[in-house]
Design brief:
Largest sheet: 2 strands, antiparallel
Number of strands: 2
Structural class: mainly alpha
CATH class of the largest domain: Mainly Alpha
Oligomer: single chain
Number of helices: 10
Strand order of the largest sheet: 1-2
CATH architecture of the largest domain: Up-down Bundle
Shape: globular
Length: about 200
Amino acid sequence: MVMTTNTNTPNATNTNTMNTPNATNMNATNANTTNARDIMNPTTTAPARLDFAKSAPKVFRSLVGFDAAARDGLDPALVELIQIRASHLNHCAYCLHMHTNDARKAGESEDRLHMVPVWREARHFFTERERAALALTEAVTRVADAGVPDDVYAEAAAHFDDQELAHVLALILTINTWNRVALATAKVAGTDERR
């Protein structure tokens, strides 16, 4: 059900409008409608702009190698949480779809997956170590906003030794790179070739 403004009565709200492909919003300025099947079926969307792996195979292999090296020694659940949070922040549907599925396959709970975007308000779902990594992920991903605050870095350094912290930082860098590659090349969520 969709709430729309009733044009016959000022400030009245109509809650009986069904959300169907034929439903119209009287206030809409854009006549285009999206069929729900189009949203759920990734094959109906435009193809990616560029096959990055084919077009720059050395660069692609280097990124894959950097990603694998960054993960080395880190808890796989933590790896996915970091990648999911950065993908949320970057609005990368392709990577978000991939990493939430990877996390599920690795046994991550739906509750925790749903709480990643609001981890500060749902602190009890995450360990102190995970919260430190999520805060660092946010700071590095949004580095142009305020840099990486000293308190965020200090909290991460309190939970990770130097080698682990370097790997966490490298992982944050790689997922931000992958997000940007996916966004720039218009990768479609749900079309991960690994599946």
